[in-house]
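Narrative summary of target 7.
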Amino acid sequence: LHLDLTGISLYELLGTIPGLSFPSLEDLTAYPITLGLTILSDTHTIRRLSVLHDTILYGNTLQNIRHDAWPELNDLTCLPDVLQYFLPADAPSDQRLPIHVYSSCMWQYRRPVLSTTRDCQWHQLHGTFRYLQYSRVPLRELRFTIPDLSVNELAPLVSPHTQLETLVIAVYKTPTDLVRSRSRVFVGDQTVY
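Modeled conformation, tokenized:
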């Protein structure tokens, strides 16, 4: 079962229905503020979570996320700075989440972008991807967007994840940007683009 709580009036309405719950919910798309709704008080079945970015709705709601409330969560999509709330460094090892698929900057492979995003830069990724080491299981799939591809920046980012099977990178420069900056992508000594 997939539940999309991205409509503000929808989550307000659902929050007023007494006794409403979703015991078979496996896939949730929501803003941070909706993660505390009583209809989501039982999140033990949720396997895939997409936390949408909205600066108006972020506020202090992220600090109220309980990492141990999502024991089956294995596929997380959120901005890099949100990752620390789901994979805190101080979580006991038996309470760490089994996240093996992570998408940042709201990039969802084979799915449309669901929300406005902030630009992710390499320094942000390096600073926050370190939280991926606090997953209970090895990372198998990593997806992110970046304005320019740099093998020098990429190598230290993915090298700790020795069981990584899938890496999806969306480089979001327009053709005009590429011509203007004369950007090139190299693999070894060959120019690919």
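The two ends are 41 Å apart (CA to CA).
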